[in-house]
C-alpha cells in the first residue's frame, strides 16, 4: 500500500510549516517552552511531537517564550556569521519571543517580529538566539530593534542562557559573544533558511524493488 498523508494529519512543526509570512522580518515561531516552565521541552525531530529534554538544572527559568523558526537549519552559512565557532549546532534556528500578556502554553505557532539576537557559542558550535516580539502585541510590537527594549529584559535573557546548562563541578560550555540588532538578525535568519534549503533532505532517496 502506498503511503499517504491523511487530510487531517498534523503538519510537522519543523518541516510542514513555512518560516513565516515575510521572513526575515516577520516569521513564524513554534513555541517549545514558556516562562513558567522549569522543564526544558524540545521538538522531537522525527515525530514532530514535543518531548521532555531535561529538567532545568538551576532555578533560572526563561524570561520569554522560546522555540524555533520552521524550515530553518543552523549549518554552514549560519556558522560563517559566528566568528569563533567551528560549526553550527545542526538544529533549527532558536527564537525568543517577548509577549506582554502571559502565554502559558507551548506547542503553538505565533507571528513574531524579529528585532535582534544573541550570538551564542555552545561547545564551539554557533547557537544563535533570535530575539523577537509578538507581532500583534499591544506593548512590544512597536519595537523595531533590540535597543528599543529595556536593557534589563535582555540582561535576563542573556543570564538565562548563560546559566541554563550549569552543572556544579563541571566546565561551562556556553558563552555569549555579542548582542546584535535586527540587521544582523535578518542575516542570520536568511542564512538559516538557506542552510535548510541546501542541507536538509527530509525524504531520502529509497531503493525500489
Strand order of the largest sheet: 1-4-6-9-7
Give the N-terminus to C-terminus distance in angstroms. Answer: 14 Å
Rounded to an integer in angstroms, the radius of gyration calculated over CA atoms is 17 Å
The total number of structural domains is: 1
Mean pLDDT: 90
The low-pLDDT segments are 203-209
| Major β-sheet annotation | 5 strands, mixed, barrel
Shape: globular
* Percent in helix: 10-25%
CATH architecture: Alpha-Beta Complex
Please give the count of helices: 3
In total, the number of strands is 10
CATH topology: Inorganic Pyrophosphatase
Q: Structural class, judged by helices and strands?
A: alpha+beta
β-strand percent reads: 25-35%
Q: Please trace the helix and strand order, writing H or E for each element.
A: EEEEHEEEEEHEH
Q: For the record, what CATH class applies?
A: Alpha Beta
> CATH H level: which superfamily?
Inorganic pyrophosphatase
Amino acid at each position: 500500500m502506498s503511503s499517504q498523508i491523511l487530510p487531517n494529519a498534523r503538519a510537522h512543526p519543523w518541516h510542514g510549516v513555512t518560516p513565516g509570512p515575510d521572513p526575515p522580518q516577520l516569521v513564524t515561531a513554534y513555541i517549545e517552552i514558556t516562562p513558567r516552565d522549569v522543564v526544558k521541552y524540545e521538538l522531537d525531530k522525527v515525530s514532530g511531537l514535543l518531548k521532555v529534554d531535561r529538567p532545568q538544572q538551576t532555578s533560572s527559568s526563561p524570561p520569554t517564550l522560546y522555540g524555533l523558526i520552521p524550515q530553518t537549519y543552523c549549518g554552514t552559512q549560519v556558522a560563517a556569521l559566528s566568528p569563533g565557532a567551528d560549526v553550527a549546532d545542526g538544529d533549527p534556528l532558536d527564537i525568543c519571543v517577548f509577549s506582554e500578556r502571559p502565554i502559558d502554553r507551548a506547542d503553538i505557532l505565533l507571528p513574531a517580529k524579529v528585532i535582534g539576537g544573541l550570538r551564542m557559542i555552545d561547545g564551539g558550535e554557533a547557537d544563535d538566539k533570535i530575539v523577537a516580539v509578538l507581532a500583534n502585541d499591544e506593548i512590544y510590537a512597536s519595537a523595531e530593534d533590540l535597543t528599543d527594549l529595556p536593557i534589563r529584559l535582555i540582561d535576563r535573557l542573556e543570564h538565562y542562557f548563560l546559566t541554563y546548562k550549569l552543572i556544579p563541578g563541571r566546565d561551562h560550555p556556553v558563552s555569549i559573544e555579542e548582542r546584535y540588532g535586527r540587521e544582523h538578525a535578518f542575516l542570520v535568519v536568511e542564512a538559516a533558511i538557506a542552510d535548510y534549503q541546501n542541507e536538509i533532505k527530509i525524504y531520502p532517496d529509497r531503493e525500489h524493488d
